[in-house]
Amino acid sequence: VQLVESGGGLVQPGGSLSVSCAASGFTFSSYAMNWYRQAPGVERESVATISSSGASIYYTDSVKGRFTISRDNVKNTVHLQMNSLKPEDTAVYYCNCRVKVKAYWGQGTQVTVSS
Fold first, then answer.
1. Which helix (H) or strand (E) holds 34?
2. For FRET with 44, which of 30, 60, 106, 110 sits at 20 to 30 Å CA-CA?
3. Which residues in 10-45 are b (16+ Cβ under 10 Å) and which e?
């Protein structure tokens, strides 16, 4: 299993950014996918989850209405569109999946929200 994030970067408060994750090594369309984030000195937290078909989606309360998770089961990718970004969204964002009870993580991509 391999997860490779891309995107991220520096954006001003109120701006938008998108991060993507390319997955390989497993049957992508059979598994839910997750985005997590970790800010310095803070525990890693779940941000959004999308079911294998995309029919069910979960967001943590702090990003509801601002972030959108989506997936492409042909291209084996999962995306996180982030709008109305706030300084408190600054973190390393990680793609995650659980395949046969084992958790896999990407290397992470930095998102910094600052003026």
1. strand 33-38
2. 30
3. ebeeeeebbbbbbbeebebeebbbbbbbeeeeeeee
60: buried, middle or exposed (CB in 10 Å: 19+, 13-18, 0-12)? middle
* Rounded Cα distance, 114 and 112, in Å: 6
- pLDDT band for position 65 (cuts 50, 70, 90): very high
What value does the mean pLDDT take over residues 21-41?
97
Cβ proximity of 58 and 67 under 8 Å:
no
Query: Taking all residues of the chain, what is their mean pLDDT, rounded to a whole number?
Result: 97
Q: How many CA atoms lie within 13 A of 52 on its CB side?
A: 8
The pLDDT of residue 105: 98
| Cα dihedral sign, 16-21-103-58 | positive
